Amino acid sequence: VSEMEKRIAASFSAQGLMATLGAELVFVAPGEVRIALSPRPELTQQHGYIHAGAITSIVDNACGYAALTLAPAGHEVLTVEFKVNFMRPASADRFIAIGKVIKPGKTLTVCQGEVIGEREGRRESVALMQATLIIVAIDS
Amino acid sequence: VSEMEKRIAASFSAQGLMATLGAELVFVAPGEVRIALSPRPELTQQHGYIHAGAITSIVDNACGYAALTLAPAGHEVLTVEFKVNFMRPASADRFIAIGKVIKPGKTLTVCQGEVIGEREGRRESVALMQATLIIVAIDS
Amino acid sequence: VSEMEKRIAASFSAQGLMATLGAELVFVAPGEVRIALSPRPELTQQHGYIHAGAITSIVDNACGYAALTLAPAGHEVLTVEFKVNFMRPASADRFIAIGKVIKPGKTLTVCQGEVIGEREGRRESVALMQATLIIVAIDS
Amino acid sequence: VSEMEKRIAASFSAQGLMATLGAELVFVAPGEVRIALSPRPELTQQHGYIHAGAITSIVDNACGYAALTLAPAGHEVLTVEFKVNFMRPASADRFIAIGKVIKPGKTLTVCQGEVIGEREGRRESVALMQATLIIVAIDS
Predict the structure, then answer these.
(1) What ipTM goes with this model?
(2) Which of A11, D34, D47, D79 is most exposed, with the fewest beta carbons within 10 Å of its own?
């Protein structure tokens, strides 16, 4: 386990919302992070699908941590903004949010994110994100 | 209480995620809906601020229900996509998400949303959303 | 005419695309800029309406210059990203793009933009933008 | 040359703005369309780079026509909204806008677009788009 993975795992564990949602950090590599989420009644919208807000929360995090994997030491990453398209009702046995760095930068990083729903070996894209992150020096 | 308010309150109550977040429907009028959220450790990101995903969840809902207030009977509203800018760390005593219809349509509705943080009488804008919703006939 | 107005007018005049489109800088105030465009066959899409790209060009500029009105001396503004909703076919006698600063910042500024179509005294919103701009020191 | 290619070429030729910009339709396949643009002083912003509005115009079109390649006969495509990140100054010998369908739909189609700047054999991504298009029956 690299320093980067440890650092991201520690940050992920410090996020109250991720525990509340039941999200799990499942993959960390330079420029790409994945977060898994299992459907639960506590995460639904009014038709029993997983709420767009829960889907957005995990893919925002996947993009943010993907940006962090390429940020210089002593820096952290904040979400400036993102846009998400919801392409299908979020109904699956398990969701995987994938965040990838498209353009790393000294100040701003651009990421793409996707949420895949898995069910009985089928995989369908549920949401698509394009995000802007800012790299800031950690106050010490 | 109008039929519209009852319908939106019932839909809101059916959303598992809103109960999980502790969000509250506080205002419903034609073209505008407001949802309140109080900060709790269960909703934080790694620095103790409220997570962008929780902020997004309430303002997405405020926009969706605002669109629903102007939709014809027998129809419901789904989020096509949204974009959110995070303008300040989400730190406040209470957050109010305001969703407003900018352009209602037969098929697509455009909304703007804002999340205001309130603290000791001060109000600051925390997040800004521009969203596209689709109006669909309810299957029966 | 203030220094700021002169500076923005000079920058606007230096943009080849604005002359090509026939766009005109019509209003500059702290935090708000307006640009006008008259329809011409050279600006159309395939149905004779004004092309989304031309509409976007003027409202991007209106937002950028609005951000510049609040930027410190010796700095310029670049567009990081924007999102635009097209709410009606762009058919009018004249279009006015209005860019307004929502949240000025030392590094990033958030603006909202709108394009209004005017015809025989009627005004209709054609497009809605939410944009992120970055303030950078001018190299000298 | 397929019926689809002829149809898209005819629509492209009917767009006054594409001729004004000097844009060229260079590739049409099911789910993907490419448009080329050469830099000219008529297309610049104030520093001599190609204006974000011109870059956006070609990638909007590439996405729209990509969506059209998968739309049923007797239908056309309109841009609902898009978001674009500008990742580098648009300086190159030639720009290629690539639009790809990510999720085709009966009503709404989601596309991703990219603008690549080519110079002396080097290719750099200049802009990244995520777009929502609507498929509508042609009035007859």
Answers:
(1) 0.96
(2) D47
